[in-house]
Design a protein that fits this description.
Shape: globular
GO cellular component, one term: membrane
Strand content: 15-25%
Number of helices: 26
Cofactor: Mg(2+)
Protein name: ATP-dependent 6-phosphofructokinase
Subcellular location: Cytoplasm
Helix content: 40-55%
EC number: 2.7.1.11
Distance between the termini: 17 Å
Structural class: alpha/beta
Length: 781
């Protein structure tokens, strides 16, 4: 995301440009957020922006299918699934004659910049169109349809692609638009099916989309703890029928009341023969006699509202797409905007398309190991972790080490997923694994018990903390903690929690000089809805909390559609950290989000009231303002309500909503389930390695700084940061890291929400492009 100075420079940088945006191929949740971002960023830089309805078909047909957009054209669409501008398969565009008509329609509107949101087929079609552009114009001149001067003016077509595909089957990007939302739909079904399957002791075979890519099946299998998984990239070994039935039978014999099998629609065996969900069902019924049902999810996965991740991802990509068009030259190859470690990046379109085709080629030629590698490191990592955790494998030998796992601080979704994977991978390593109830307080009281593989079955989708969690810090009960560390011979301590977990481990490390028993290996998995733990970009639970806040705000906005001229002031949690408020603000298209990290004054509040007053004179007669609970000592939620009510009297009325603890509740999102699972595995593997390094003469002695770390995701890398090093970059008074990556998102929030429309222009209905607009981003908005 560009800095504020860079955005200032961009103002009017696109004057004279015309940009068109279309959606093509299968729809995906989040496409509307991308259309909104392209439109508003385009208007910000001074360009004309056109919406092309019905995809390439609308481009070929022209006429009313190509309409100029204004700021309000894309209001209130961010929360809608599908695509409001329509998408259609178009045979005509696959022919040169069809592309000739499309070129004529673009030239008619002076459009030489095209943003295409779709899959690899749609993007490949756009690149062909671009490569033929000069020849198409030449033909139009020859036919007398356009003049040579018009051809000169429109001599080059710039193309940028955004990948909209629920399958996540495009190489070069971490996630495609719609994938996260599709996973939400799948997990909602899995959670619902689990309850009925347990009631009747049934086996369910769930078929999910993914004709050529097993990403949805893989991640939903990992997030649900499925008993068996079929993906096209890694067909089962010959004789899989016997092994699968044996494992399903073992699971039941150990007391499980259900089995879940997930199958991608494109599943095949080693010879390339399709494996159908009905074949799997019949196999289970015939061999095991289990009551078995098939559920084919189908287009349910495409439907529904986009998740918070998809809304933010699409908004970032849409803004970057306009930047790419601004900077494009005739020599710039067509690019695709991808997502890589929290950043939007531009990659050569056809190189990414080629790698995507290489995966399919590897699968066709039965080079399955290579196909998984070509899918990317994340896909391979998911597959390996699923295989590790799905079925118990006896440890080759019993290790001399014992570990304890506890939760500390407020509950956060994903904690249980992390505990489950940590317990299971620890058992695989041969360790003795203890769990502790009620955090450090429970450790002091000796609430410690050994657990086995099946003790954590069914924990993946559970919200809150199954172990119980408290905010008590070790310094209040240090001697009793030391006593129980000695009593249970604990040599590794895995603490899953928020700022208190980090601070607690830091206190234990600083007490090592006084208590030799604390010279053990320690690791913190950050888990808090506030996302305020140093050493990581994301904490477990923050994605679930953002989605919970977003869903509440969607409902609040919907209620205002009937009651016009109303402004809602919504208070979010997060302590002093404004992450929750900022990301929710982007996801719901809020007018403002006040946070502690971005100081604001009474002048900013006044400007915001004026903005909302102007907004009430348009068709969008509602407002939504978010306030982080500790954003300002004096400008409280009540103060904002009184100020807005007084200043908006006669123009709009106000309502307060304090979201409170609903942000901590609910089932974890697919992201938090998988993130917790991965962090649990990686933390225990790291601790096992450290224990080996510090083990000598039958005992563990770990007193160096690098034996007590916070595990976290930094961009694309899982990193281990010593708590003693993180102490130097922590604001303990406000419980915050001194630097926070997400502050870069503030500019996007302000820009996409608060473009100042000229009222006279709106009222007169003349929403044509003008050369000078009043464009302002104001501090605090």
């Amino acid at each position: 995301m560009a800095a504020a100075a860079e955005l200032e420079r961009l103002r009017m940088a696109g004057a004279g440009m015309a940009i068109a945006v279309l959606t093509s191929g299968g729809d995906a949740q989040g496409m509307n957020a991308a259309v909104r971002a392209v439109t508003r960023m385009g208007i910000y830089v001074g360009a004309k922006v056109f919406l092309i309805y019905e995809g390439y078909e609308g481009l070929v047909e022209g006429g009313d299918n190509i309409k100029q957009a204004n700021w309000l054209s894309v209001s209130n669409i961010i929360q809608l699934g599908g695509t409001v501008i329509g998408s259609a398969r178009c045979k005509a565009f696959t022919t040169r004659a069809g592309r000739l008509r499309a070129a004529r329609n673009l030239v008619e509107h002076g459009i030489t910049n095209l943003c295409v949101i779709g899959g690899d087929g749609s993007l490949t079609g756009a690149n062909i169109f671009r490569s033929e552009w000069a020849g198409l114009l030449e033909e139009l001149v020859g036919d007398g349809q356009i003049s040579e001067e018009v051809a000169r003016k429109n001599c080059h077509l710039n193309i940028v692609g955004l990948v909209g595909s629920i399958d996540n089957d495009f190489c070069g990007t971490d996630m495609t638009i719609g994938t996260d939302s599709a996973l939400h739909r799948i997990m909602e079904v899995v959670d619902a099916i689990t309850t009925t399957a347990q009631s009747h002791q049934r086996t369910f075979v769930l078929e999910v989309m993914g004709r050529h890519c097993g990403y949805l099946a893989l991640v939903s299998g990992l997030a649900s703890g499925a008993d068996w998984l079929f993906i096209p990239e890694s067909p089962p070994e010959d004789g899989w029928e016997d092994l699968m039935c044996e494992r399903l039978g073992e699971t039941r014999s150990r007391g499980s009341r259900l089995n879940i099998i997930i199958i991608a629609e494109g599943a095949i065996d080693r010879s390339g023969k399709p494996i159908s969900s009905n074949y799997v069902k019949d196999l289970v019924v015939q061999r095991l006699g289990f009551d078995t049902r098939v559920t084919v999810l189908g287009h349910v996965q495409r439907g529904g509202t986009p998740s918070a991740f998809d809304r933010v991802l699409s908004s970032k990509m849409g803004m970057e797409a306009v930047m790419a068009l601004l900077e494009a030259t005739p020599d710039t190859p067509a690019c695709v905007v991808s997502h890589s470690g929290n950043q939007s990046v531009r990659l050569p379109l056809m190189e990414c398309v080629q790698v995507t085709k290489d995966v399919q080629k590897a699968m066709d030629e039965k080079r399955f190991d290579e196909a998984i590698q070509l899918r990317g490191r994340s896909f391979e990592n998911n597959w390996n972790i699923y295989k590790l955790l799905a079925h118990q494998k006896p440890a080759q030998e019993k290790s001399p080490f014992s570990m304890a796992i506890l939760n500390v601080g407020a509950p956060a979704a994903g904690m249980n997923a992390a505990v489950r994977s940590a317990v299971r991978i620890g058992i695989c390593q041969g360790h003795t694994i203890y769990v502790v109830n009620d955090g450090f307080e429970g450790l002091a009281k000796g609430q410690v018990r050994e657990v086995g593989w099946h003790d954590v079955a069914g924990w993946l989708g559970r919200g809150g903390s199954m172990l119980g969690t408290k905010r008590t810090l070790p310094k209040t009960c240090m001697e009793k903690i030391v006593e129980n560390v000695r009593k249970f011979n604990i040599q590794g301590l895995l603490v899953i929690g928020g700022f208190e977990a980090y601070e607690g481990v830091l206190q234990l490390v600083e007490a090592r000089g006084q208590y030799e028993e604390l010279c053990i290996v320690m690791c913190v998995i950050p888990a808090t809805i506030s996302n305020n733990v140093p050493g990581t970009d994301f904490s477990l639970g923050s994605d679930t909390a953002v989605n919970a806040a977003m869903e509440s705000c969607d409902r609040i906005k919907q209620s205002a559609s009937g009651t016009k001229r109303r402004v809602f002031i919504v208070e979010t949690m997060g302590g002093y950290c404004g992450y929750l408020s900022t990301v929710t603000g982007i996801a719901v298209g809020a007018d403002a989000a006040y946070v502690y990290e971005d100081p604001f004054t009474i002048h900013d509040l006044k400007a915001n009231v004026e903005h909302l007053t102007d907004k009430m004179k348009t068709d969008i007669q509602r407002g939504l303002v978010l306030r982080n609970e500790k954003c300002h000592e004096h400008y409280t939620t009540e103060f904002l309500y009184n100020l807005y009510s007084s200043e908006g009297k006669g123009i709009f009325d106000c309502r307060i909503n304090v979201l409170g603890h609903l942000q901590q509740g609910g089932a974890p999102t697919p992201f938090d389930r998988n993130y917790g699972t991965k962090l649990g595995v990686k933390a225990v593997l790291w601790m096992s390695e450290k224990l080996q390094q510090v083990y000598s003469k039958g005992r563990v002695f770990a007193n160096s700084g690098d034996t007590a770390c916070v595990i976290g995701l930094r961009k694309k890398v899982v990193a281990f940061s010593p708590v003693t090093e993180l102490k130097k970059v922590t604001d303990f008074e406000h419980r915050l890291p001194q630097e926070q990556w997400w502050l870069n998102l503030r500019l996007m929030l302000k820009m996409l929400a608060n473009y100042q429309i000229s009222l006279t222009e709106y009222i007169s209905g003349q929403m044509e492009h003008v050369t000078r607009r009043t464009l302002s981003i104001e501090k605090g908005f």
